[in-house]
Design a protein that fits this description.
The protein is of the alpha/beta class. The protein contains 6 helices and 5 strands. It has a 5-stranded mixed beta sheet with strand order 2-1-3-4-5, sandwiched between helices. The longest helix has 22 residues. It is globular, with a radius of gyration of 14 Å.
Length: 167
């Protein structure tokens, strides 16, 4: 994977795994723009099966609706790359797997697809903790496509760690 050298997904996933094990949490992922990169990083860590239940790659709007339960009207009103959709993805995947924590990413990796309101590199990262409203962060990364995907995956892993520590 090309991208910024400071993005170390495997180490971030290992730290997340330690936190998940310590708290006896389970984790699931819903990925759009990262297309499985978060799940890949998590499963590079030996023993990830003790806490990682799986994930959904919901690249299209139809997949977001059918696989994650994202409301069609939410997608129409806000677009796939939005805070409400990231929240709905995280909540949907967590509920479908009955996990303790669901993490989701939706964004525009580039190099095209962006616009004035939603530039290339824009990503929304969401987390849904059992019994709590979803948390969503907005990021605009300025790397190439691979770098934007890696940065978004890292942001998701870090948000998951903060959610575990908050819970």
């Amino acid at each position: 994977m090309s991208g910024p050298a400071e993005i170390d997904l495997e180490s971030a996933a290992a730290r997340l795994g330690e936190d998940l094990l310590a708290g006896e949490w389970t984790l699931v992922t819903a990925e759009s723009s990262t297309a499985g990169l978060i799940g890949h990083a998590i499963t590079m860590v030996p023993g990830a099966s003790r806490y990682y239940l799986g994930g959904v790659i919901a690249y299209s709007n139809l997949a977001k609706e059918l696989e994650l339960g994202v409301d069609h009207e939410t997608l129409v009103a806000h677009g796939a790359v939005s805070e409400p959709v990231a929240a709905a993805m995280a909540e949907g995947v967590r509920a479908r797997f009955d996990a303790d924590l669901g993490v989701a990413v939706t964004g525009i990796a580039g190099p095209d697809g962006g616009g004035a309101d939603k530039p290339v590199g824009l990503h929304f990262v969401g987390a849904s903790r059992r019994g709590h409203p979803a948390t969503v962060e907005r990021h605009v990364f300025q790397h190439d496509r691979d770098g934007n995907k890696a940065a978004a995956a890292l942001a998701a892993l870090e948000l998951a760690r903060r959610e575990i520590r908050a819970g």
